[in-house]
């Protein structure tokens, strides 16, 4: 009616930046993100994704998108070492890794050792060779 709907998602950064998504917006964005994972990243139901991200809005968006697509979302903190990430990639047989543009350089040295990894997705404004950019694909 007269009152706007409560947000489904409301995120505020340390600097005061806000991201608010209604249920309709979260639904639409998560469908688009699920398509990115299924099409651009070539993932299928049951495939695993490792996300090494700070708690930015895309962390929650990708979590919901994975649920939609039947993809297993494996969260990892930005404090993981290269050895931790290498172990997780091999143990999980993850086919995709998702990280931020600022964390990607630290992850890149361990990625060639992963025999299962097929795609790399970056969250942020920056771009890197060999990485897909989520914002551009959405």
Please give a structural write-up.
This protein is of the alpha/beta class. The protein contains five helices and seven strands; from the N terminus they run ββαβαβαβαββα. Helix 4 (104-107) links the parallel strand 5 and strand 6. Helix 1 packs across helix 2 (57-69). The longest helix has 18 residues, at 23-40. The radius of gyration is 15 Å and the shape is globular. The model has no long low-confidence stretch (mean pLDDT 93).
Q: Any chance you could write out the topology, listing elements then pairs?
A:
Elements: E1 9-12, E2 18-21, H1 23-40, E3 48-52, H2 57-69, E4 72-76, H3 82-92, E5 96-100, H4 104-107, E6 119-123, E7 132-133, H5 134-137
Quick synopsis:
Helix content is 36%, strand content 22%. With 138 residues, it is an alpha/beta fold.
The average pLDDT is: 93
Order of strands across the biggest sheet?
4-3-5-6-7
What amount of the residues lies in strands? Answer: 15-25%
Shape: globular
Sheet/helix structural class: alpha/beta
Instruction: Give the count of helical stretches.
Output: 5
Largest sheet: 5 strands, parallel
β-strand number: 7
CATH class annotation:
Alpha Beta
| CATH T-level fold name | Rossmann fold
Question: What is the CA-CA span between the terminal residues?
Answer: 31 Å
């Amino acid at each position: 009616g007269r009152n706007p709907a409560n947000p489904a998602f409301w995120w505020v950064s340390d600097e005061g930046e806000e991201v608010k998504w209604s249920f309709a917006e979260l639904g639409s964005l998560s469908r688009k993100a699920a398509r990115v994972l299924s099409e651009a990243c070539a993932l299928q139901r049951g495939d695993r994704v490792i996300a090494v991200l700070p708690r930015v809005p895309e962390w929650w968006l990708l979590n919901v998108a994975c649920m939609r697509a039947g993809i297993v979302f494996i969260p990892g903190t930005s404090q993981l070492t290269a050895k931790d990430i290498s172990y997780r990639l091999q143990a999980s047989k993850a086919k995709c890794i998702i990280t931020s543009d600022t964390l990607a350089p630290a992850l890149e040295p361990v990625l060639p050792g992963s025999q299962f990894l097929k795609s790399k997705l970056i969250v942020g404004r920056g771009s890197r060779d060999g990485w897909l950019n989520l914002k551009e694909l959405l």
